Structure formats: structure tokens, C-alpha cells
From TrEMBL, chain A:
It is a peripheral membrane protein. Keywords: Antibiotic resistance, ATP-binding, Nucleotide-binding, Transport. It is found in: Cell membrane. InterPro entries: AAA+_ATPase (IPR003593), ABC_transporter-like_ATP-bd (IPR003439), ABC_transporter_ATP-binding (IPR050763), P-loop_NTPase (IPR027417). This is ATP-binding cassette domain-containing protein. SUPFAM superfamilies: P-loop containing nucleoside triphosphate hydrolases. Pfam families: ABC_tran (PF00005). GO terms for molecular function: ATP binding; ATP hydrolysis activity. Coiled coil: none annotated. GO terms for biological process: response to antibiotic. Its main location: membrane. One of its GO terms (cellular component) is plasma membrane.
UniProtKB/TrEMBL annotation, chain B:
It comes from Kribbella capetownensis. Pfam families: ABC2_membrane_6. The keyword Lipid biosynthesis does not apply. The chain crosses the membrane at residues 36-60, 72-94, 123-143, 155-181, 211-230, 242-265. It comes from the Bacteria. InterPro entries: ABC-2_transporter-like. This is ABC transporter permease. Keywords: Membrane, Transmembrane, Transmembrane helix.
From TrEMBL, chain C:
It comes from Kribbella capetownensis. The chain crosses the membrane at residues 31-53, 65-86, 149-178, 185-205, 237-259. Keywords: Membrane, Transmembrane, Transmembrane helix. The keyword Transmembrane helix applies. Pfam families: ABC2_membrane_6 (PF06182). This is ABC-2 type transport system permease protein. It comes from the Bacteria.
């Protein structure tokens, strides 16, 4: 267990400004404050070496939680333990244990070439020169930094900057890496590079990775386990596969045909959802009927030219989860 | 894969980190070469108008509260030089609101170095070099003309007083900057403090009546910046409504005020609400 | 295509004016501290001038009461019309938002002037607080005659027009260089000194007085206040107003000229 979160809560209080005439003038004299609860008593654990997805809609409390885990914010109540330390209290020791990349903001020195930022980090974390050289060499190769390592950060493209940020966070080999929307706004190639890198530092180097993202491709490719929160509460915690299994109560099969009218198709095991002359979609419950049985039934009775079984889509599952907003009772087994 | 971390004491660690971060700040400042001169000039003008102000007035009025031009000029010079000991090392403190609003403090909290240290090394305050040039120049020019019989002991006292005065100003500004973790913006408050110090700490403060003087000594401790040590050097401690020994100890006020400010600042970090969280 | 009459023009600009006005009120703490600050500084200023005058009946033909009142009124006026952040233009140029401003249906000059005007109105409470302080300390003097009062109000309006125009002119350096910190400081403190906000021209050294009186800055604060205190009569009074008006026109012309070059720069070089 490298990260342990128990009953974690964070409140923010802000001046309460009511709209209306002279709102500005009135606000000079009121001291009313509005308290909002961003994180509401969440608990979870993360094992050493895990790569966990931390998901939730905008404003769900993801960033607030990550910021409490990293020691940026002090919890209102509850406890966080990261590698045996309380992040905000043992801030400096914690800082050497973790790396963090926030997609929206760079941690690099804006006016200096990328290489200088790396050197400052080398010095700040008292790395010995040999380790620094080898590691920078490896990362340079993994992420193709060569072409822009001597460019000032302010002139880098988003994808380049992101790669720079990742290296800066991993140079001193922290045990834990927090990634807050690392692929937001990037093109397909850049996303791919970053995913490859994250997979490598997790699998190859045993770094524990906590990833928040809105990109379900990131999750499908990288995470085995996810924590989903909304309104500051945990909606689901567990295996990605189990989540799909729990949520996907029906699967679709699509059949194409040329020799007969597809609208005439019917099956005792599945229900027709839509049909036109050349194509029909049927839905069945995998708990009741196994997929091969449905396929066999259809192919044996109709001259079908093509058939495809649709994979359950994580995106849909998540969408359903966010709209219903009820916690999933059964929990996955963890990694 | 985890590295052996050399354990250093926080103070030694911060000294090391400040060297690293300062180098980065100056290197970044140098990447905009054109601004160098205009910034230094700006710094000199900012403080220079005050010198001009007092110069023009005393040319017409000769005396203020029994102080002649040469001593007033020396007092102003002391204030300017003390100010330099604040703005040169700590000038970036001015940008605390931006550091908080833009979430740069997130980054500082993620690094193994003191947060305050990272705030004051955010950028190299080029303008401060102008303040320093003017301040040290003013002391060098006006000290020999002041009614002081200079002895090595008095020179040492003067230097201690200037550094202490700088720390008093730093401490006050650090305290106010700590409030930024709670309030949206403290810029106006800090400019108010800075402006009040700039405009009035170079006067014989007893002229603001007994209560005025006492509040400028113990509540808003501006008197420690230049006036109290100046009364010692000029042999005017009899003017003070407080015991003379306090004036003799005034250079020690710097570390005290600074310590209070720093403790408060560090305490307030806990109230930090990172933007966009 | 809507007809662009004067009234629609003004309605269009009201938004910018309001933005300036509300931006002052939005930071309530800033305004409160500004008020507290002015109260403190007005008090200290009154003391400084009174102490300066001990042992003098008149200096340069000016008595203690007038000098003290001038210092208080100048401080109030300065607080309202010379805000530290006098224009959002440099920041908008730096962030590249200026392109958006330029496609709005009002000229950038009127947008900025309206906004700066709004800011000044929002800062009126500051001036009021300073004035009340001055009155409480018995440090404010009313004009000698109603005529002096009326003329000095006209003169203040011209002074404000002068400040708005010069502020915008200086802000426009942002189109040529992004490093304007030093220039801004130079301008802020230079104009504070040369406008008579810190010291009235009466007390300036004799060799400096003619130089300052030929610069545009004295028309901002010194001119209206010298009328207020009745130190100008007849031809001198008319001449002062004429000079103020001339400066506003010259500066406005200059503004158009600089603006045209700035547009050229943005259009050709892409900001």
C-alpha cells in the first residue's frame, strides 16, 4: 500500500456575491461566505506499482483530490498517507517521493531552454551527474527530445512542452507520478508517445502512476483499475473490465445481408433494435444468452454476408455512470 | 530505483536551493536584454522622485522639525539604502498575488525547497538594482555631510542599521504577502505599505505627534527602518518619547520583524486554495 | 446595417465604461485599502506641510493654509485620476487579446478612453474619503469666488482629458516593446512630479518653473488647483484654460497618429 486515503474531505469558502443592482457596492460591506464541499469523505487505497485511472466529470473533485495527495492543499478533514508520510506536513520529503505533471500548467522555467530546466531539477534534487546523464539520455530517446531540448520553453508546442514536463517530473525517479490530464489538447501522435512513455515508466521502472483524464482511450490503454468520483464522492472503484461487465447489461450484434430483406430478421435470443433493407442491429443480454449462441442462431438461419459483435464502449459506460450518478455497489478486487 | 537522498538540514538545503534558483532567475532575466537599462532607470526614478521632492522642499524651507537639509538628506539616504536591502533579495515578493492566482505556488509546493524561497526567487527584480544604485549612492554622498563624527563603530552601526532596516521592510511585506493566501488580492494593501514607507519614513517621525510616532514604532514599525538608528548616529535620541536604549538596539528590530513575518507567511500557506481545483 | 448615430455610439461605449467602473468595485479589498491609505496619507501630508511652515508666514508668496489645502486636494485628485493600473492595453497586447478588441464595433481609442473614464468614476470614493479627512483636519479651503469654483471645475475636466490621452499614448508603447515596466514607472513618477501632484509649481526652483509650465503635465493637476486657490486672474486665467485646451487637442492628434502606426504594426506584423 503506497497511498492510503481515508474519509478525505475538502471545503472551500468563497465570498458570496449576490447579483443585482449595486452588487459591487454592496459586496464592499458584506462578509457573507459560501462554503462548497469539493471532496466529500472519500476513501481508497493504491498499491505500489499500480497504474490507476482517476476519473470524473468536470468539477467532480478530481483535481482537488490530486492536490491533496501531492501536498498542495491541506485537507479539511480525513487523512492522506503517501509512502508513509502526510504530504502537506512532510512537504519536502514528500516532494522527493513524487513527480507531478499538470496538463494545463507547465512546471518548467518559462524563459529558459528546456535543458536548463532539467539542470535546475538535477541540482534541486541533488542528483549525481552520472545518473542524470544516463537518465536524460534514455528519456531523450524515448520521447525524441533532441530537436527541441535547447529551445526556450515559451516557444515550445503543447506536445513538446508536455514531453518536457514529463521528463522533468521523472528525472529524479520518484516512486509516484501524478498525471493530471497529460494528453489534453494533443494530437494522436503526441498522445501515443506520451502513453508509451507512461506505460514504460510504470511497467519497466515500477513507478506508481495516478492518472486523471477525460480521454477513455488513455484509460483503456493504460489502466487496469479506476476510481471514478463525482460531486466529491466515489461512484466506482475497481477493475475496468468489471466495470464494463457490471454496467453493460446488453450487447449489440450487427448483421449485414444482400440477398434478402433485413427487416424480416428475428431471433428468440435477441431483440431487433433497428433494421433496414441491408442491415439490422439486435440486442441481447449476455447473462442470459452467451454471444456464440446468438451468432450461431443468426448465421444458421439467415444467409448473412457480414456480422459484427460490438465491444462494450467504456465511453458509454462512463456516460451512463455520470448521468445516473449512483454509486456502484459491488466493488472490484483491485490490482 | 529510488535514490539515496542526502539528508541536509532545512537551512543548508534552502541555501543550496536559493543559489540554484537565483541563478535560474538571473539567467531568465538576462534573456530579455533590452529591458535591463529601462528597469534600472525605472528603479532609480521611483525612489529618485522622493529625493527630488525633499530636495525641492528644503531648498525653499531650509528646516523641517529642527532638522537641517544635510541631516534630512542623510535620513532619506539611509531609508533608500535600507530599501535596497529589501528589494534586491526579496523584490519578487511583489508578485505574490500572481504566484497564487496563476497557481505557480502549486509548483513551489511540489519541489523540495522552501515555498517562501521559491516565491522570492520567482524572477530577478532588475529594477531593484536601480534602487540599490541610488540608495548606496545617496548614503555615500550624504553621510559625510551629515552632522555625525564618523568613527569605525558608527560605520558598523550604520551598516547594521541599513541591513536591519531592509529586514524590517521585508518582514512587513512578508506578513502582508501571507494574507494573499486568504484574500483575492493584497496588492493594494502592499502598495499602501510601500508607498507610506517610501513617502514618510524619511522624516523625523516624532513630528507626527506622540501617538503617531508610537504607532509608527510599535504597530507599523516604520521607525526602525531609518529614523530610530539615525537619531543614534545624529545624537538626537533625546527627541524620542521612548527609552534611548531602544534606539540603540534598533538594528536588531530587522531580524525580529522578519521572523514574525516569515512565521506568519508559512502558517498561511496552509490556507492556500489552488486555482481551478 | 444599423445606423451609427452618436447615441448608438455612446450606448456601445457604455459597456466599456461600466467594465472600468465595475472592475474597481469588483476588488472591494483594493478599494477599501485605497480609502484607508488615502486617509492615512492625507493626514501625514497635512502634518508634513504644517511642520514645514512652522516659522514661516509665507513662502514664495503662499501661506501655510493654502499650501496645506493644495497638498490635500492634490492627493485626492491624484488618487482618483492617476490610478496605478491606468490602462489594460499593455496587458491585452501582451496576451494577444488586442486582435479581439480591434474587431469590436467601436474604435480601440474610444473603448480604452471609456474604460479609463469608468475606472476614474469607480475611484471617486477614494477622493471623497481624502476630502473628508482634509475637512476633518481643517485643512481644506474653498475657492474665493463662485467664478473660481466654476472655472476650476472646467479646468479639472480639461485636466482629466489630458491625463486620459497621455495615459493611452504611453500605454501604446506596448505595441512596440513588451518590456514596458521601466517606461511605466518612469512615466508614473515623472508625471506625478511634473503635474504638481506632489509639489505645487510655486515651490519649485525658479529655473525649473518655466520648463515645467511648458510641459503638458502641469495642465493635469497644478492648473485646476491654482485656479481653485485664486492665484490666477484675467488674462492669466484665460491663458491657462487656453493652454489646457490646446494641449488636449495636440495630444489627441498625436494619439490618432500613434494609433495609426500601431494598427499598421499589428496588421503587418501580426501583433
Amino acid at each position: 500500500m503506497i497511498i492510503e486515503v481515508a474519509d478525505l474531505t475538502k471545503d472551500f469558502s468563497r465570498p458570496d456575491v449576490r447579483p443585482g443592482r449595486f452588487a459591487g457596492t454592496r459586496s464592499l460591506f458584506t462578509r457573507a461566505r459560501k462554503v462548497t464541499r469539493a471532496v466529500d469523505g472519500i476513501s481508497f487505497q493504491i498499491d505500489d506499482g499500480e497504474l490507476i485511472g482517476f476519473l470524473g466529470p468536470n468539477g467532480a473533485g478530481k483535481s482537488t483530490t490530486i492536490k491533496m495527495l501531492t501536498g498542495i492543499l491541506v485537507p479539511t478533514s480525513g487523512t492522506v498517507t503517501v509512502a508513509g508520510q502526510v504530504p502537506w506536513r512532510d512537504r519536502r520529503r514528500n516532494a522527493r517521493t513524487i513527480g507531478a505533471v499538470f496538463g494545463q500548467r507547465t512546471q518548467l522555467w518559462y524563459d529558459l531552454p528546456l535543458r536548463n530546466s532539467f539542470e535546475i531539477i538535477r541540482d534541486l534534487y541533488s542528483m549525481d551527474p552520472a545518473t542524470y546523464r544516463t537518465r536524460l539520455g534514455e528519456f531523450t530517446e524515448l520521447l525524441d527530445l533532441d530537436e527541441f531540448i535547447d529551445t526556450p520553453v515559451r516557444s515550445l508546442s503543447l506536445g513538446q512542452r508536455m514531453r518536457g514536463d514529463l521528463v522533468a517530473a521523472m528525472l529524479y525517479a520518484p516512486r509516484i507520478l501524478y498525471l493530471d490530464e497529460p494528453t489534453v489538447g494533443l494530437d494522436v501522435v503526441a498522445k501515443g508517445k506520451i502513453r508509451e512513455f507512461v506505460a514504460e515508466i510504470n511497467a519497466g521502472r515500477g513507478t506508481t502512476v495516478i492518472l486523471t483524464t477525460h480521454d477513455m482511450d488513455d484509460v483503456e490503454r493504460l489502466c487496469r483499475r479506476v476510481v471514478i468520483i463525482d460531486h466529491g464522492k466515489i461512484l466506482y472503484e475497481g477493475d475496468v473490465g468489471m466495470l464494463k461487465a457490471q454496467y453493460v447489461t446488453s450487447r449489440d450484434v450487427v448483421v449485414h445481408c444482400t440477398d434478402f430483406d433485413a427487416t424480416t430478421i428475428s431471433s428468440p435470443f435477441a431483440q431487433v433494435v433497428s433494421a433496414d433493407t441491408f442491415k439490422a442491429t439486435l440486442r441481447f443480454d449476455p447473462e442470459v444468452t452467451a454471444a456464440p449462441k446468438v451468432v450461431h442462431d443468426l448465421t444458421s438461419r439467415y444467409p448473412i454476408t457480414d456480422l459484427s459483435l460490438l465491444e462494450p464502449d467504456l465511453e458509454d459506460v462512463i456516460r451512463q455512470l455520470y448521468t445516473e450518478r449512483t454509486p456502484v455497489p459491488a466493488r472490484g478486487t483491485g490490482a | 530505483m529510488a535514490e539515496q537522498v542526502k539528508t541536509l538540514s532545512p537551512i543548508r538545503e534552502d541555501l543550496r536551493a536559493s543559489r540554484i534558483l537565483l541563478r535560474a532567475g538571473w539567467r531568465a532575466a538576462m534573456s530579455y536584454r533590452i529591458s535591463f537599462l529601462s528597469a534600472i532607470l525605472g528603479g532609480m526614478v521611483l525612489q529618485g522622485t522622493q529625493l527630488l521632492f525633499i530636495g525641492v522642499l528644503l531648498a525653499k524651507f531650509n528646516v523641517i522639525d529642527g532638522w537641517r537639509l544635510n541631516d534630512i538628506a542623510f535620513l532619506f539616504g539611509m531609508r533608500l539604502a535600507a530599501h535596497a536591502f529589501y528589494v534586491v533579495p526579496f523584490g519578487a515578493l511583489l508578485s505574490i498575488d500572481q504566484a497564487i492566482q496563476q497557481g505557480d505556488v502549486d509548483r513551489y509546493l511540489l519541489r523540495p525547497a522552501g515555498t517562501y524561497l521559491q516565491v522570492i526567487t520567482r524572477y530577478a527584480p532588475l529594477m531593484a538594482l536601480g534602487d540599490a544604485l541610488l540608495g548606496f549612492g545617496a548614503v555615500a554622498v550624504f553621510a559625510p555631510q551629515a552632522s555625525v563624527d564618523w568613527t569605525p563603530g558608527k560605520v558598523v552601526f550604520l551598516i547594521a542599521a541599513l541591513v536591519g532596516g531592509g529586514l524590517v521592510e521585508t518582514g512587513m511585506q512578508t506578513f502582508l504577502a501571507g494574507l494573499s493566501f486568504r484574500m483575492t488580492s493584497t496588492m493594494s494593501l502592499r502598495i499602501l505599505a510601500d508607498d507610506t514607507i517610501t513617502r514618510f519614513s524619511g522624516y523625523p517621525l516624532t513630528m507626527f505627534s506622540r501617538w503617531g510616532f508610537l504607532s509608527l514604532t510599535f504597530i507599523f514599525p516604520m521607525a526602525f527602518i531609518a529614523y530610530l538608528p539615525a537619531t543614534v548616529l545624529l545624537g538626537r535620541t533625546d527627541d524620542l518619547p521612548i527609552p534611548a536604549w531602544l534606539a540603540y538596539l534598533s538594528p536588531a528590530g530587522g531580524p525580529v520583524v522578519f521572523a514574525i513575518g516569515l512565521v506568519f507567511f508559512n502558517r498561511m500557506i496552509r490556507s492556500y486554495t489552488s486555482p481551478g481545483s | 446595417m444599423p445606423v451609427d448615430t452618436l447615441s448608438t455610439r455612446l450606448t456601445g461605449l457604455r459597456g466599456f465604461y461600466r467594465a472600468g467602473y465595475q472592475s474597481v468595485l469588483a476588488y472591494r479589498a483594493d478599494l477599501l485599502f485605497g480609502i484607508v491609505g488615502l486617509v492615512i496619507q492625507a493626514t501625514l501630508t497635512v502634518v508634513v506641510w504644517r511642520v514645514l511652515f512652522t516659522g514661516h508666514d509665507q513662502v514664495a508668496g503662499i501661506g501655510s493654509a493654502t499650501a496645506v489645502a493644495y497638498a490635500v486636494l492634490a492627493a485626492c485628485l491624484q488618487a482618483v485620476v492617476m490610478p496605478w493600473q491606468f490602462s489594460s492595453l499593455p496587458l491585452r497586447v501582451m496576451r494577444g487579446q488586442i486582435g479581439v478588441d480591434m474587431i469590436r464595433p467601436r474604435s480601440l481609442i474610444s473603448q480604452n478612453l471609456a474604460q479609463a473614464g469608468g475606472t476614474m468614476v469607480g475611484r471617486l470614493p477614494l477622493g471623497a474619503a481624502g476630502l473628508v479627512t482634509g475637512l476633518a483636519l481643517g485643512a481644506v479651503k474653498a475657492p474665493h469666488s463662485v467664478l473660481d469654483l466654476l472655472v476650476s471645475v472646467v479646468s479639472m475636466a480639461l485636466g482629466v482629458a489630458n491625463i486620459l490621452t497621455i495615459n493611452l499614448l504611453v500605454s501604446m508603447t506596448a505595441f512596440w516593446t513588451l518590456e514596458i515596466g521601466g517606461i511605466m514607472i518612469l512615466y508614473r513618477f515623472g508625471s506625478a512630479f511634473l503635474s504638481g501632484a506632489l509639489i505645487p509649481l510655486w515651490f519649485m526652483p525658479e529655473w525649473l518653473q518655466p520648463i515645467i509650465s511648458w510641459l503638458p503635465f502641469q495642465a493635469q493637476i497644478y492648473a485646476p488647483l491654482s485656479i481653485w486657490f485664486g492665484t490666477r486672474h484675467g488674462a492669466d486665467l484665460v491663458g491657462t484654460l487656453a493652454l489646457q485646451l490646446a494641449w488636449v487637442m495636440v495630444l489627441f492628434l498625436l494619439l490618432q497618429l500613434v494609433w495609426r502606426r500601431a494598427v499598421h504594426r499589428v496588421v503587418v506584423l501580426g501583433g
